[in-house]
Each structure stands twice: as structure tokens, then as C-alpha cells.
Amino acid sequence: xxxxxxxxxxxxxxxxxxxxxxxxxxxxxxxxxxxxxxxxxxxxxxxxxxxxxxxxxxxxxxxxxxxxxxxxxxxxxxxxxxxxxxxxxxxxxxxxxxxxxxxxxxxxxxxxxxxxxxxxxxxxxxxxxxxxxxxxxxxxxxxxxxxxxxxxxxxxxxxxxxxxxxxxxxxxxxxxxxxxxxx
Length: 183
Prior knowledge:
- By secondary structure, the protein is α+β, with helices and mostly antiparallel strands.
- Helices cover 66% and strands 16% of the residues.
- Strand 4 (167-169) and strand 5 form a beta hairpin.
- Helix 1 (2-102) runs antiparallel to helix 2.
- The mean pLDDT is 85.
């Protein structure tokens, strides 16, 4: 009987040793899986952070681009509107120039002159400026030469006559000055 008891004790001890080995293996597997999970979660967190930062930068760029487009659209609208109103200003200037020669005391002349002055003030307040031409050096970016003359009074490429006034808005030309250039 003692042998049977010894065999049973040996079997129990082996079973206990096997159980302990299995438990330690299970604990190691749990530790590995926990470490794997942490690593996966850290990688996923880094991926989400990268996506968030990219999305935020993209939105910020979109916002800035939209602001620029709005400003550009406003400037284009101002230039387009002023371009359509410039013939009216030209006609008022012609009327004032002709009437000035005839009778400067006429009330109609004064009304037209005041209307022209008001128009010019409005253009100035919105940022539209006339391009200087007479006596200036010819600049193809600002002036359109429609005639040339040989005149000793003026130097080479100096504007001797402004036929139509040019205007610019924020350093962009709305209409070039039509000029006569002395050679």
C-alpha cells in the first residue's frame, strides 16, 4: 500500500507541478497580451493624433484660403464697378472743362463741378487713385501710348499729353492712362 500511496503522491505532485507550470504559462501569456494591447493602443493613439493634427492644419489652411478669396472677390467687385463708372467721371470732367471756358458763374456748371468733386472724393475714399501721367516718364504698366511726337521741350519717353485719365485700385490698374509720349 505504501507504494500505491507513493505513486498517488507522485501523481498528485506531478499534477500540481503541471498545474503550476500551466498557471505560470497562462500568466506569461496574459502579461504578453497586456503588453501587446498597450503597444497596439499606443500605436492607435499616435495614429489618431496624427490624423487630428492633419485635419486641424487642413481646416486652418481652408479658413485662411477662404478669407483671401473673400478679400479678392471684394477687390474684384470694386474694380469692376469703378471700371463701369469711369465713363461717367470722364463725361463730367469734359463738361466741367468745356463750361469752364465758357461761363464759370453758371449755376448748372457749379452743380456739375460739385458732382464731379463728390464723385472724385468717393473714389478716393474707397481707395481708387488717378494715375499720374503728365510730365512723368512713360511706364507701360500704367500708361498706354496712343501717339508719339518729337518735342524738344520734353525729354525722351516723357508724357507730353494725357488724353484719358487712368485709375488704379490697391496697386492694380483699373484703366491705363491714354497718353502722348515725346521722343
